[in-house]
Fold each of these.
Amino acid sequence: MAYVISDECVSCGACEAECPVSAISEGDGKYQIDADACVECGACAGVCPVGAPSAE
């Protein structure tokens, strides 16, 4: 199951830069993950300072 970004997101962009498949983009007030492109590697969760990305 794809990762999702919670409302805890502070829009720092660390996750977007870390994503190996460019599945993360800036959304309205927080970043979002394209579930169809996500390969569930967890790289985004590893760099997030607030723990916003998690496995769905």
Amino acid sequence: MTEPEIRNATPDNTRGHASYAIQRVLAAARARAQVHVALVTLLLQVLIGGSVVAQTTNQDASDLIDLLRSAAKDVSFDGRVVAANQTDIASTLDSVVAQIHFSAEQSVEAGDPLFTLDPTEFKLRVRTAQASLLGAQADTELANENYLRAQTLFERGTVTKPQLQKAKAELAGAQAALALAEVALDGARIDLESTVIRAPISGIVGPPNVSVGAYVKAETGAPLARIVQLDPVLVAYEEPYAEQVELFQSTALSSPDEFLGLLTIRLMLTDTLIYPIPSKPTHASSTLNEATGTVTLWAEFDNPQHVLRPGMRVRVLTEVDEDAVRRMTGEK
């Protein structure tokens, strides 16, 4: 798209989705020669997912792409950048903040330490659990020896069956206690590891909501901080839906979402600057905006340099995915 075309892509001259522009092209084509009427019919077959006759030539596919490009070139919509993912950081323990490892608005990677809680109490819990485990292991070994001895004596006839069953039950109880001691040690170790609170995702971390020395409680109160993922990001934009319904109800298209596969979108950041990485619409909202009659579409954009930021306003430009059209027409 040239610079004049970009500047003309304003809400005043935008007429809705490419489907509206396609209808305009079709109306003009009907007034032309009969050969153009046949070409328009083939265009509709492509857009509605209908069958394309085997006699379709490569020149027909090329003409279709030209028509689609002409129909979509002036279509643009207001869009906004939103975070694809964000998460609040919270503590899973009741403890005191001992260290903060980041500055506000710092870029962090998943797994980076953000906060360290006072580990003293949790180290003691690990040592206590280790001691309990050693005791449980000794009790289990003794109970096992007693059971083996009782089994041997029972075979010799010097121990009764109830005595053997008692030894077996004592062994089972010791084994259960050993298993609980192992679980307790695992839990104590997990708690100790949790004293270092790490970033669950990569992104930009906001300012900490606590300071060193603050007492924090598990999963309660305000989050300790928030991380916003910036790569990738989502772009949301509104499209008029009535024109789509009129087109789709008059054809065999199974759903409006089928048309999304034929489009590529780009972002206009200023009057002259277009974001270099294209994308495709990924999904649409299940409900309409009652006030405007529009449907919200989302597209995911790679954002390796963090140029796109949540809250940023952009213009969404619609282009034709020529490869998708060729695949639909069966052209190699």
